Amino acid sequence: MLIDDYEEFTDEQIKTLEKYVSNTRGHIFVLRNLPEVIKGALFSRYSRSNLGLRTLLLKEFIGNNDETSFETITGSGASNNTPASQTAAIQKAQNFYDRILDGYGDDSIGELGGCHAAIENVSMLAAKMIEDSRIGGSPLEKSTRYIYFDQKVQGEYLFYREPVLMTSAFRDLYINTCNMLFDTYSKLIPPLMGMFEEKMPKDPDSSKAAYAAALRAKVLDCLRGLLPAGTLTNMGVYGNGRFYESLIHKLHCHPLVELQDIGKRMHEEISKVLPSFIRRSEINHHTHRQFASYYEAMQSEIKAVTEQNSHFADKPCEAGVCLLDYTEDAPCKVAGALLFANSSHSLKDLIQLCHRLPEEEIARILDAGCNARENRRQRSPRALEHANFTFEIIADFGVYRDLHRHRMLTQERQLLTCNYGFYIPPEIEGTALESTYTAALQQAKDAFDRISAELPEEAQYIVPMAYNVKWYFHVNLRALQWLCELRSQPAGHPGYRHIAQVMAQLVCKQFPSFERFFKFVDYNSHDMGRLGQEQRKAEKQLARDN
């Protein structure tokens, strides 16, 4: 039985509360029109109070305006409130919010407030490093398949002018190579568009807009490999305070000047709305100084021991996916975990039981965990998380950018280089465009080799997206199922579709009983994979217009 109306409010209090809560009577309601600093402090206080949240809001925040600056911060006071006055009020009241938040001594308090941050005109390299902090943040980056990247501003292509490179002997080499890559990208768009229009003409029954969008996506998917990692992009991030504090700590300590500058600017801007949540990441705060000391010492020691233990001949590296490691008795562990919730036995006993069961019975248990799935969006039980796999992948940086966004896995990559070869889209191979494409990539490699000999970190900016990078994924079966089924869909880029397909195949080869968990992986090839989705979008728009 749900209990409503357990708090009594006067008419005046109800009128006040209506501005800030979605329901003044029921026991479930949503906060609104409150800045993050107030919501975070309110929920922190709420966890150690006998009062209901609405009563707490009235008594300790609205009724304590002298200390909380509630009216100015929320804009409910004087009519001349401005963003500047609200920011000043937050700073004035910061001691109040700090005292509440500090009083709980739990970093999870930082997850009670969040904000949206726009991060514009940063390199694709920097964007990936920001997205490395995956938990607590939700990033969205400018797409290379819907946006042309050949535009100029004041006569210059949009790529990052790295300060160290700009003051080095490699300045002209870097700028000229990036300009060459953008020129080649721009020059190849029209002939490739014409080639695809001839090879895959528009179906009379399909939408003109859908066909144009799918065609553009296919052309840009093929040519994105020419864009250097220094290409400027925009990204939006929603994150909680704990996410931003951790991210800013790392940005301050990064060896690249661009990341350090982003960290400084992010702290300045987020402090205007979440000051109490990220104050410890300020570059002079004692907590950050301690973090920086630890982080730099750790990185230095790891680098030293790596150099001491890497003196053996490099083996040739080929692009592809390798299954390095896996849970040996994965089917029994997953089956035992599936039985656990409806049993009174220990997990250990259930797993041991499954080791003794015949294959037919294990199959029946595994079937129970997936037979009811009707589409890929229906998540499998958490029991699948008891099977773990480690993959090493060598694929182009463009594919890495797409697959990197999956948060529920452990991943790490090496520095970008031009040492592992590059990807040539099959649509370009054997055509008149191939020599132009490959010559541009080879010229970029020559420049990279010269720069990286002295500046290996900064040289990453010149690496085109077509060049392969080496990374690993350590992932459980449940997360892998989601990744493979999502990334193999027809609308996806063929590069990452192939990686998703191969990962699923490797797991099913090792454990045939797990094939049932990958039933929505699409193993087919699609020449205009984006067309179906664009057509559905056009049909929905037409229905709305009518």
Protein architecture, described:
The chain has 546 residues and is α+β, with helices and mostly antiparallel strands. The chain has 23 helices and nine strands. It has helices spanning 11-17, 36-46, 53-61, 65-68, 70-74, 83-92, 94-102, 124-131, 163-166, 171-199, 208-223, 241-253, 257-270, 275-278, 286-308, 330-340, 347-356, 359-368, 397-403, 434-452, 477-487, 494-510, 529-545, and strands at residues 114-123, 137-141, 152-153, 156-157, 232-240, 320-326, 388-396, 410-413, 468-476. The protein has a four-stranded antiparallel β-sheet with strand order 6-7-9-8. Strands 1-5-2 form a three-stranded antiparallel β-sheet. Strands 3-4 form a two-stranded antiparallel sheet. A hairpin with a 2-residue loop joins strand 3 and strand 4. The longest helix has 29 residues, at 171-199.
Q: Descriptors for this entry?
A:
3-stranded antiparallel β-sheet; 546 residues; alpha+beta; 4-stranded antiparallel β-sheet; 10% strand; 49% helix
Q: Short summary of the structure?
A:
This protein is 49% helix and 10% strand.
